[in-house]
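F.,

This is the one I mentioned.
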């Protein structure tokens, strides 16, 4: 945005997601450059004569959604894990695919992922780790999103591809080099975190050193934690205790740990998350494939910071946080046999301000408040998929589709306006992604089965 340039939003149904979750009916919001200047009632003297005026005509105005766990480098592997068991997915599909990617592949995959994130109203996300942080940084910078980017870090484990077999020191040095080079680039939108893939593939020393470095550089640690039943069984066999209990004994449970999935926690371990302010990324679609039911209702009751992530296209296929919100509203009611748990208002908090808090950025975005970043989305409910709207809050979770998201703004700049992507060449990226995906499948020797008889000509 030009220096001092203003955008004045009028007549919107504004969900501020502030501390009191205030809503303004027929409310206004004023953006100047990259920040929110006023919200709710805007004094006329604040609005410059040349301000761009947007009449929302009753449409929703919300903070941009925050996706706290998305594997951008897996976007072009979509379909690689459908209908196979976990070990086949990991050793015969995912690892061969990912280990055959180049830096340019990672760049294109991240661009492809950014398209889907923008279209689903995401303005900020956390990447748990690909192999080429440089490629991810380039893509996120061009897309205009905010990203907490990390490297996928492993220093042990069976079956790792040769190219991934690195020492602890090599992994730590690479991450710190990435941080020094890219942290706070793209006007502060791109930041580097430390990554830990999983306790299967991380030694205790690596986990401890990672925590020390993250604290030193005031960064977060992004880790898959208590993801699968087999993981907890492994840690009990190797360490004599389950994953979270072991991490607690190591002393790494803390406010800058983003723990992903967290399906297999005991009640006592949930209490540990509460005590140490550990942040949680709930990925319902990925969990439903094979992992199980996380204790989200219990975590919310204890005011644990629970956010929402989509995981990667190799396990979830859809990087659409709107779908994840809808699924979150259903699965916990189902397994608890209680239709009152995890209500829509809690899910909206998870997807906005909880997400910002999980990424240690609650002072910057996650709510529409004076002085915060202009990260926002316009939602148009008009249409058969969402109308009629009676419960305006619930409709955003139970009825909305990502196609209802009309425009996405990050840092005061339009990424999508009236459903048109403005920062990227969508057609070119989609075509390039298809070519690169097919080439990687071929290099990796991955052959997907014909599900129905195919006549090839």
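My design for it:
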């Amino acid at each position: 945005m030009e220096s001092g340039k203003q955008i004045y939003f009028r007549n919107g149904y504004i969900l501020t997601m502030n501390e009191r979750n205030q809503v303004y009916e027929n409310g206004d919001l004023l953006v100047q450059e990259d920040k929110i200047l006023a919200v709710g009632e805007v004094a006329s003297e604040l609005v410059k004569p040349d301000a761009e005026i947007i009449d929302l005509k009753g449409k929703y105005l919300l903070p941009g959604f925050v996706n706290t766990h998305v594997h951008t480098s897996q976007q072009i592997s979509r379909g690689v894990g459908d209908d196979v068991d976990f070990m086949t997915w990991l050793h015969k599909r995912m690892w061969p695919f990912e280990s055959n990617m180049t830096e340019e592949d990672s760049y294109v995959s991240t661009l492809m992922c950014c398209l889907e994130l923008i279209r689903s109203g995401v303005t900020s996300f956390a990447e748990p780790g690909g192999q080429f942080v440089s490629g991810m940084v380039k893509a996120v910078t061009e897309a205009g999103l905010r990203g907490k980017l990390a490297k996928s870090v492993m220093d042990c484990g069976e079956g790792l591809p040769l190219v991934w077999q690195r020492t602890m020191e090599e992994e730590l040095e690479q991450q710190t080099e990435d941080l020094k080079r890219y942290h706070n680039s793209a006007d502060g939108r791109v930041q580097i975190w430390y990554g830990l893939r999983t306790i299967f593939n991380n030694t205790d020393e690596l986990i401890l050193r990672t925590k020390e470095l993250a604290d030193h550089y005031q960064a977060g640690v992004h880790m898959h934690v208590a993801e699968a039943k087999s993981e907890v069984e492994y840690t009990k066999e190797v360490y004599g205790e389950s994953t979270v209990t072991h991490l607690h004994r190591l002393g790494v449970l803390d406010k800058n740990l983003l723990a992903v999935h967290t399906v297999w926690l005991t009640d006592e371990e949930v209490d540990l998350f509460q005590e140490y302010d550990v942040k949680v990324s709930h990925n319902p679609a990925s969990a439903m494939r094979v992992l199980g039911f996380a204790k989200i209702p219990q975590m919310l009751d204890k005011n644990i910071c629970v956010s929402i992530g989509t995981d990667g296209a190799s396990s979830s296929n859809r990087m659409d946080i709107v779908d994840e919100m809808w699924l979150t509203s259903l699965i916990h009611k189902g397994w608890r046999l209680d239709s009152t748990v995890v209500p829509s208002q809690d899910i909206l908090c998870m997807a906005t301000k909880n997400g910002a808090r999980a990424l240690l950025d609650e002072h910057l975005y996650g709510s529409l408040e004076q002085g915060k970043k202009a990260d926002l989305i316009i939602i148009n409910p008009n249409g058969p998929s969402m109308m009629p709207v009676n419960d305006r809050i619930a409709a955003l979770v139970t009825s909305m589709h990502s196609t209802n998201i009309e425009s996405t703004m990050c840092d005061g700049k339009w990424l999508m306006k009236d459903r048109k992507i403005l920062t990227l060449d969508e057609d070119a990226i989609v075509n390039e992604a298809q070519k690169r995906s097919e080439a990687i499948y071929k290099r990796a020797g991955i052959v997907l089965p014909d599900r129905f008889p195919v006549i090839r000509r």
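Residues 6-63+367-420 form a domain with the Urease, subunit C; domain 1 fold (CATH 2.30.40.10).

Talk soon.
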